[in-house]
Write a structure and sequence with these properties.
binds 6-O-phosphono-beta-D-glucopyranose, glucose metabolism, oxidoreductase, carbohydrate metabolism, G6P_DH, alpha/beta, glucose-6-phosphate dehydrogenase activity, globular
Length: 494
């Protein structure tokens, strides 16, 4: 079903996110009939552009980044005429009044019933001022619905996130606020619920009686690229930990919701976040969290600079580009099961994987005395490969005694003709339909910050534990010790 007609306001329309993700997502939705003809997109940024120049930029972005090409001229022309551009100083309410007048014209031209979706791809300190000016400039007075989509980072810590939220709340109600965590838009992250709750194989075993540990890896090969200015103040814990990693952890750990409705699912996720054991002391943090920073190294024969040599990064920076943590979910289901999470820049491969390691078979006379049985694994591959596989033990053909682990695999991304929607397509479509299931609610955000802030505070006081690791390697060796002391190891990613 197409989303109901609306004007989409892209704040930050000349930025990287619009180019790489938002324009392509809108085009894919249009091509698949999920946007009918009753919509308009207003590009907003300070720079001046004509509508034609803006449309030309959208065209380039689609041909470079979209999973569909704009090669059908008729379709492209129809799509492009929905795009207009307005140069806007976001501190000047007069500009917003002009935007209101423009919106009324667009409503009429495209037969839109006054619905307005504001997409803020802006620095967080602008969320408040823009919200106020939307209100004061008359944009919220139209007849239809009003929704605001907010990009990460949602604050820097709990107090700053709280302040942002208070500002936005003066203008929008919680159900009108759609906080993006693009990992929640990924097919395989959404698939976690189905794998868990639609399979008799898994749900009965999904607890501390059968699962030995859970491992979540988000590794990237890129360095900080041209985002040094932002990243050096943020670091891996805030950039990936507070949001994507904790969100994936909640999807793995949550109780079955009473229904598959947004609020029910988010209620269950919040319960997980409330069950996270907080690291209270400096020693707790030292024992359970490892951080690292990449130094010079080599990847596929190519020499790579260290983090401190990157553009806009301080020469003596102590920002972490890697962290690994042992996380405990202190509730009935998970008591005693460690969740190990790790993420880093400049690691050897780009991948996101969740590994569920099952407990070993009881030591029995049949096999265990003669063989070291490998544990069963369930591996959920989120990106760039999408799929799942399980590792089970089987007899080696031709031998009476040898047992070997074999993999049974479902590779979604290998299937011919499967062209899975990008995260942003799904999320924009959901926001336009008013479905906030895969957006983060304020209580999720605040609990996640509370957890992360404790770690950040301990790190702030003493930076002696930050470990350099060569770019292109798997991070500091201390990250392996986190598991070794519990009798486990990181399973190699594929
Ligand atoms: C973003 C982070 O949220 O996620 C980036 O700010 C990171 O630092 C990116 O590179 C990774 O996303 P994906 O979808 O490419 O895995």
């Amino acid at each position: 079903l197409p989303a109901s007609g609306a004007v989409y306001y892209l704040f930050g329309a000349t930025g990287d996110l619009a180019k790489r993700k938002l324009f392509p997502a809108l085009f894919s939705l249009y091509k698949e009939g999920k946007l009918a003809e009753d919509f308009a997109v207003v590009g907003l940024a300070r720079r001046s552009r004509t509508d034609e120049q803006f449309q030309a930029e959208v065209y380039e972005s689609i041909n470079e980044f979209c999973r569909y090409k704009a090669d059908d001229a008729e379709l492209w022309n129809r799509f492009a005429q929905h795009f207009v551009y307005m140069s806007l100083d976001i501190n000047d309410v007069e500009g917003f009044r002009e935007l209101t007048r423009l919106s009324e014209k667009l409503d009429e031209r495209f037969d839109i019933p006054g619905n307005r979706l504001f997409y803020l791809a802006l620095a967080p300190e602008l969320f408040g001022p823009v919200s106020f000016n939307l209100r004061d400039g008359g944009l919220l007075e139209s007849k239809g619905w009003h929704r605001v989509v907010i990009e990460k980072p949602f604050g820097y810590d709990l107090p700053s996130a709280q302040k942002l939220n208070d500002q936005i709340n003066q203008v929008f109600k919680e159900e009108e606020i759609f906080r993006i965590d693009h990992y929640l838009g990924k097919e395989m992250v959404q698939n976690i619920e189905v794998i868990r709750f639609a399979n008799a194989f898994f749900e009965p075993l999904w607890n501390n009686k059968h699962i030995a540990n859970v491992q979540i890896t988000l590794s990237e090969t890129v360095g900080v690229e041209d985002r040094g200015g932002y990243y050096d103040k943020s670091g891996a814990l805030r950039d990936m930990g507070q949001n994507h990693m904790l969100q994936m952890l909640t999807m793995i750990a949550m109780e079955p919701p009473s229904r598959l409705h947004g609020e029910d699912i988010r209620d269950e996720k919040v319960k997980v976040l409330r069950s996270l054991r907080q690291y209270e002391t400096f020693e707790d943090v030292r024992k359970n969290v490892v951080r690292g920073q990449y130094s010079e190294g080599v990847h596929k024969g190519k020499p790579l600079p260290g983090y401190r040599q990157e553009e806009s990064v301080a020469g003596d920076s102590v920002t972490e580009t890697y962290f690994a943590a042992k996380v405990a979910v202190d509730n009935f289901r998970w008591a005693g099961v460690p969740f190990y999470i790790r993420t880093g820049k400049r690691l050897p491969v780009k991948t996101t994987e969740v590994v569920i390691e099952f407990q070993n078979m009881p030591n029995n006379v049949l096999f265990a005395s003669r063989h070291n049985l490998a544990p069963n694994l369930l591996v959920i591959r989120v990106n760039p490969m999408e799929g799942i596989y399980i590792k089970i033990n089987a007899k080696q053909p031709g031998s009476d005694t040898q047992i070997q682990p074999v993999a049974m695999e479902f590779c979604q991304s290998c299937q011919v003709g499967i062209n899975t929607p990008e995260a942003y397509e799904r999320l924009i479509y959901d926001a336009a339909r008013g479905d906030s299931t895969y957006f983060t609610r304020w209580d999720e955000v605040s609990h996640a910050w509370a957890f992360v802030d404790k770690i950040a505070a301990a790190w702030h006081d003493d930076t002696s534990d930050i470990r350099p690791y060569p770019a292109g390697s798997w991070g500091p060796t201390e990250a392996s010790d986190l598991l070794k002391q519990d009798g486990f190891r990181w399973w190699p990613v594929n």
